[in-house]
Amino acid sequence: MSQIPFNVYTFDIKEDSQGNIWTGSVSQGAFFYNPKTGKQGNIRFGNKVKDKIIDEFAVYNIMEDSDHNMWFATNGGGLIRLNKDHQSFKRFTVKDGLLSNVVFSILEDQSNRLWISSLKGLVCMDKKTGKICVYTRSNGLITDQFNYSSAHKDVDGTLYFGSVKGLISFNPSELGQKLVSPPTYITGFRVNSKEMVANEANSPLKRSILYTDTIVLSYNQNNFSIEFAALNYASPDVTRYKFRMAGLDNSWTYLNTNRDVYFTDLAPGNYTFVVQAESNTGNWIGKEKHLFIKIHPPFWKSNLAYLVYVLLLAATFYFSIRYYRNYLERKNHNRLVLFEHEKEKEIYQAKIEFFTNIAHEIQTPLTLIMGPIKWVVKKVENQPDIKKALFWQREMRTGWPN
């Protein structure tokens, strides 16, 4: 064709809805020609510097979408959308979410989304929002590297892409179905950084952790880690997980790659570890794996210890009350004894005073009698019998002078 320069190597040829024939070249962009109108042109996608086009990329594939925009897959220039006026275009590269700037083929599904094969995987792009989803070997592809001019859309909507390891086919309408999450298993349990093996010394496991749903730990085994995995053979490398430890934090924690979780210095109590894997379609419908964990408190914090503490406290309180009561009784008794002693002393003193007063009252008339008696004694000096009788009477009465 004279409309295409001689020696221009062509990768792809497409006819659009307007009857234009498009060809993709190696180093001169894309050419178009309309046999009916004779209109022709050359669209260059490189950078223009001083009226010279540089950084031109080979055009591997050309596609017209349902909105009649032209799309070009380039070798190093990413994905290019040519607007309807054929005067402006927009480039999509790795900066916009593509896996690679080497793009091989473009197909549009029945939902008007673009599927782009590249050097590093498959890309799905929503034309309206610009949202991009990527698919690689981690998502189940047999390879990340696709091939030139190897794409086809069937009448039922199934898309076919050729790769360096074979043919990949799928129907995009089926990708939206919500699949059940793959089963999740707990595959490892470590205490203080040591792997626990069933029936070993100081091991809380009585059987393999795969078949264990309850673990009982002592107070000094409260630093442990749990390893888990999902039986997802299609995309194990990108399987996401979520977990929570009921009794510690009821909110979910999401993990993209790590399959180990660590817990340190957990307080004695009851906990339930819950983990679940995400399905390949991005939902969390399915069974959760539960592991019940009980951490015993140390003896001095056990229920029996608290019972002993209560009993000791009660005994201390009882004996304190009893001692205080005995103290008050002794104190009151001593006060009573002292009071009785004081009363006896007062009574005794009253008696002494009484008898002293009586003696004084008696002694006074005797004194009055003593004078005449002494005079009589002097008069009877010559009468021994009378004198003797008088002295005998004196000795019978105390207090008399000699």
Describe the fold and architecture.
It is built from two helices and 26 strands. It is an alpha+beta fold. The protein folds into three domains: 165 residues, YVTN repeat-like/Quinoprotein amine dehydrogenase (Methylamine Dehydrogenase, Chain H, 7 Propeller), CATH 2.130.10; 115 residues, Immunoglobulins (Immunoglobulin-like, Sandwich); 93 residues. The longest helix has 77 residues. The termini are far apart.
Counted beta strands = 26
Beta-strand percentage range = 25-35%
**Strand order in space, largest sheet:** 20-26-25-22-23
Task: Predict the CATH topology of the largest domain.
Answer: Methylamine Dehydrogenase, Chain H
Alpha carbon gap, first and last residue = 185 Å
Characteristics:
single chain, 402 residues, alpha+beta, Methylamine Dehydrogenase, Chain H, Immunoglobulin-like, 3 domains, five-stranded mixed sheet, four-stranded antiparallel sheet, 22% helix, rod-shaped, disordered C terminus
Task: Offer a quick outline of the entry.
With 402 residues, the chain is α+β, with helices and mostly antiparallel strands.
Layout of helices and strands, plus pairs?
Blueprint: E1 10-15, E2 21-25, E3 30-33, E4 40-43, E5 47-49, E6 52-54, E7 59-64, E8 70-74, E9 79-82, E10 89-92, E11 103-108, E12 113-118, E13 121-126, E14 132-135, E15 146-153, E16 159-163, E17 166-170, E18 184-191, E19 194-195, E20 214-217, E21 224-230, E22 241-246, E23 249-255, E24 260-263, E25 269-277, E26 289-295, H1 303-379, H2 384-396
Parallel strand pairs: 20-26
Antiparallel strand pairs: 1-2, 2-3, 3-4, 5-6, 7-8, 8-9, 9-10, 11-12, 12-13, 13-14, 15-16, 16-17, 18-19, 18-21, 21-24, 22-23, 22-25, 25-26
